[in-house]
Amino acid sequence: MNSSHQSRAVAITGGASGIGLETARLLTERGFEVFLLDLAAPALGSACTDLGLREERGIVCNVVDEAAVDEAIGRITAAHSLTAVVNCAGIAMDRPSVETSVEDFRRIVDVNLTGTFIVSRAAARYWLERKLPGAIVNISSVSGLCGNKGRSAYGASKGGQNLLTLVMANELGVDGIRVNAVAPGPIETPLTQAVHTEDVRRQWLDRVPQRRYGTPREIAAAVAFLISDEASYINGQILAVDGGFIHAGLVA
Question: Where are the strands (E) in 170-236, listed by range?
């Protein structure tokens, strides 16, 4: 890793579990100053202990609350130079469109899409005001790239997240701010364990050429690359990390 990153900070939303936690682990190992933003205070405490981070590195924050997000970014940047933001906070539901309530649809879009926008905007404003470069990585999903059944709300939120990535990359690239997304396929996380039934798991495994779920570490590695200097000319990309699912066609 470039030594210039060793004193810089990365904010990770949804950082107390799953992909967010594993991304925090990998970036901590690589010398970044990691801050975890999450709604779950007990989980934040456990995550900080697990990662060997001071308690103040865990910030209770609701990503759909503009004031809370601005306060969290302010706390981080009061003593650190913000290098990157990773938007991992998200919720999911597996339910047919005709059985999805408007309330559930709005809730999922609010957290997954609006929350990503609020956090990304706060980080971008920080960098623009100081004429600093930065990197944003949004954790999207292959469900935002294709019409997976049962994903009307989740897929819409992730499809919107993908387009938000492209728009912000276009707008901010001239200022040295890169915006990319990672679109995971099926990953072994607490979220998928709660949502994926045995039948759903079988269907995924039948369609993924590598015939397995991915690991949070594999997603974390993609994120680490996208915020690194090695990815300095990568902007506005949606990187599917899915074992080949999205382009498989008829499987072998």
Answer: 177-184
Distance CA 60, CA 37 (A): 6
Question: Which of the residues are catalytic?
Answer: 154
151-187: pLDDT as tens digits: 999 999 999 999 999 999 999 999 999 999 999 999 9
Distance CA 239, CA 40 (A): 28
Residue with the two structure tokens 């759903």: 200
What predicted TM-score, i.e. pTM, was given to this entire model? 0.94
Query: Which contacts of 125-131 are long-range, i.e. CB under 8 A and separated by 24 or more positions?
Result: 126/73, 126/77, 126/82, 127/82, 127/175, 127/176, 127/177, 128/172, 128/175, 128/177, 131/175
Domain boundaries in the chain?
3-241
Tally of CB atoms within 10 A around 220: 25
Q: Is the dihedral of CA 116, 119, 124, 127 positive or negative?
A: negative
Return the CATH class of domain 3-241.
alpha beta
Length of the chain in terms of residues written: 252
10-residue stretch averages of pLDDT, the chain, 252 residues long: 59 97 98 97 97 97 98 96 98 93 98 99 98 98 93 97 99 99 94 86 93 97 98 99 88 61
What are residue 8's phi and psi, to 5 degrees? -100, 160
